[in-house]
UniProtKB/TrEMBL annotation, chain A:
Required for the activity of the bacterial periplasmic transport system of putrescine and spermidine. One of its GO terms (cellular component) is plasma membrane. One of its GO terms (biological process) is transmembrane transport. Residues 66-258 form the ABC transmembrane type-1 domain. Belongs to the binding-protein-dependent transport system permease family. CysTW subfamily. This is Spermidine/putrescine transport system permease protein PotC. It is a multi-pass membrane protein. It comes from the Bacteria. It is found in: Cell inner membrane; Cell membrane. It comes from Mesorhizobium kowhaii. Its main location: membrane. It holds the Pfam family BPD_transp_1. Gene3D superfamilies: MetI-like (1.10.3720.10). Keywords: Cell inner membrane, Cell membrane, Membrane, Transmembrane, Transmembrane helix, Transport.
TrEMBL record, chain B:
It comes from Mesorhizobium kowhaii. Residues 88-296 form the ABC transmembrane type-1 domain. It is a multi-pass membrane protein. InterPro entries: MetI-like, MetI-like_sf. The chain crosses the membrane at residues 20-47, 94-112, 124-147, 167-193, 229-253, 273-295. It comes from the Bacteria. This is ABC transporter permease. One of its GO terms (biological process) is transmembrane transport. SUPFAM superfamilies: MetI-like. Belongs to the binding-protein-dependent transport system permease family. CysTW subfamily.
Length: 266, 306
């Protein structure tokens, strides 16, 4: 060591940090290893095999739930990102105006309420609407997911807008561009990385949701996470490990992409 | 004729109106599918339970009484509902201990990350972000496989001869605690790291120049400066931990209920929607008290650091 006395050193902190990183990843690694277990029981190692991936692939319930998760996630992410972009444009780059604080609070409200409470509230509200209209499709889940995804989509878009240079937009206005043209040609292209980041965040958040979905879904509307919760409660087979492994890979891929997009601006 | 001032005022009014129109879709969907229904829960908590779930539209304070008290079915006397009180206290206790545990582990981790070189910092941040965005259910399931009787911890301890029979961790409060600390740790690390990254280490150096010990520097300089991050992290962990549903369902088994399981029960087999609603509002009240404490604290430290 070059420095005998480092001002940044605190005794034991590095050890705790190292332990934390190991502990964070160890269970996930074990989970992935057991997905390749040939044995039927999860308590012993029976050799390497892909058979649980095959059995998950042939399980129509798993495939149905996965497709439903993607469908809800894609629609909810799209709507929440569009709404969040509009809301971000309306709440940034301005002097404080009446109602601005209210808007911040309203947009972030879904983050402040425990999911169980929102789940119960939506169960009551939607069951009333179901009786009233007779509609019991995926619309309820999509509406619920859109609402709780908005604050997540809003975050990176707002951050991007606040760091954006106003000069180009002023120049466009000076050159007689209409506000819409300025938005299409200048603001939107500059904002694009933020919007993409918001879209991916919203998609991951929707894909991961268990609690609100569990309360809002009607019969036969299991998403992948609620299907897995049901299976885990019934007892576990390595098939759940296999599904989890694929799910994990997908999340890691999206997060990696997100990380690079949102880092790019620097 | 409009004066320049009037024109400017009209333009400003138009701008504000456009901004309301622009934010309307987001506000509307959040009101319809998140905020608004909370008001219905409040109304439901004052109604009479229906025979097959749902409610009868008849005012009754029974649900709120039943949150903490139970009525004797023979002589109508009220006594403390021991089961509910136990679940309330267990949930609050587990949420507080989870917050403390994640703080004890997360603070040094955030400090470690913030003191790396600029280049490697991104890598550490990435490593903490991955579990953060990984499905909570999958992470809870991963913990389940580690701590169950045939899991890796018990297997190793048995092989080493330290224990002769597996330790029962699963389906206990300890299991819920381990699970919650595990899944919520990144929520604590990230905001502390965000504060820590901005820390000016010249202040730390000044502390050492004035003969402060390492512990004193930590306590008097570093901790006060990153306090906003610590408070934000604590709130981010406490709120979901108090209302945790997945972790107690998977790791706690049927006996070790938390508030969310008790609420779910009222909407399932319990068929007592008003009681479930009253319990939900009670959770909301605890959360709001915590949030108010946060806002007041954040306001105070904001003033102090300019």
């Amino acid at each position: 060591m070059a420095n005998r006395f480092s001002i940044k050193h605190q005794p034991g902190f590095t050890t705790i940090a190292a332990t934390c990183f190991i502990v964070l990843y160890l269970p996930i690694v074990v989970l992935v290893i057991y997905a390749f277990n040939a044995a039927t029981s999860t308590s012993e190692w029976g050799g390497f095999s892909f058979k649980w991936f095959q059995s998950a692939w042939q399980n129509t319930q798993v495939i149905d739930a996965t497709l439903r998760s993607f469908q809800i996630g894609a629609i909810a992410a799209m709507f929440s990102t569009i709404f969040a972009t509009m809301a971000a444009l309306a709440t940034t780059r301005t002097a404080p105006y009446p109602g601005l604080t209210f808007k911040y609070a309203a947009i972030n409200q879904p983050l402040m309420v425990p999911e169980i409470v929102t789940g119960v509230a939506l169960l009551i509200f939607f069951s009333r609407i179901k009786i009233f209209t007779g509609y019991s499709g995926l619309g309820y889940l999509i509406a619920a997911h859109t609402a709780f995804c908005i604050p997540f989509a809003y975050l990176p878009i707002r951050a991007r807008l606040e760091n954006m240079d106003l000069t180009l937009e002023r120049a466009a206005a000076d050159l007689y561009a209409t506000p819409w043209r300025t938005f299409r040609r200048i603001t939107l292209p500059l904002l694009w990385p933020g919007i993409l980041a918001g879209l991916m965040l919203a998609f991951v958040i929707s894909l991961d949701d268990v609690v609100i979905t569990e309360f809002v879904k009607s019969g036969g509307q299991d998403t992948l996470p609620t299907y897995m919760l049901g299976q885990i409660r019934r007892g576990i087979t390595p098939e759940i490990n296999a599904i989890s492994t694929v799910f994990l890979l997908l999340s890691v891929a999206i997060v990696t992409l997100f990380f690079f997009i949102s880092r790019k601006r620097d | 004729m409009a004066t320049a001032e009037e024109v400017a005022k009209a333009a400003e009014r138009r701008d504000i109106r456009d901004r309301w129109l622009l934010s309307a879709p987001a506000l509307l969907i959040i009101f319809l599918a998140a905020t608004g229904p909370l008001l219905i829960v409040l109304v439901y908590s004052f109604l009479t339970p229906g025979s097959y779930g749902d409610v009868k539209w008849q005012f009754s304070p029974e649900a709120w009484i039943a949150v903490f008290l139970e009525r004797d079915i023979f002589d109508d006397t009220l006594s403390v509902a021991a089961a509910h009180v136990t679940i309330f206290l267990r949930s609050i206790k587990l949420a507080v201990v989870t917050t403390i545990a994640t703080l004890a582990l997360g603070f040094p981790t955030a400090y470690f990350m913030a003191t790396r070189s600029e280049k490697t910092r991104d890598l550490w941040l990435f490593l903490i972000t991955i579990p953060f965005w990984t499905n909570l259910l999958i992470r809870t399931f991963a913990v389940l496989q580690i701590i169950r009787n045939e899991g890796i911890i018990n297997t190793i301890l048995l092989k080493l001869g330290i224990i002769s029979s597996p330790i029962q961790i699963l389906y206990t409060d300890t299991a819920i605690l381990i699970g919650m600390a595990y899944v919520y740790l990144p929520l604590m690390v990230l905001p502390i790291y965000a504060s820590m990254e901005k820390l000016d280490f010249r202040l730390v150096e000044a502390g050492y120049d004035l003969y402060a010990t390492r512990f004193k520097v930590l306590r008097k300089i570093i901790f006060p400066l990153v306090k906003p991050g610590v408070i934000a992290g604590s709130i981010l962990v406490f709120i979901p931990a108090l209302g945790a549903y997945v972790t107690p369902s998977v790791l706690g088994g049927g006996k070790n209920m938390m508030l969310s399981n008790l609420i779910e029960l009222q909407f399932g087999q319990g068929r007592n929607w008003p009681l479930g609603s009253a319990l939900s509002i009670a959770v909301m009240i605890i959360v709001m008290v915590a949030l108010l404490a946060y806002v007041r604290n954040a306001g105070k430290s904001g003033v102090r650091h300019g």
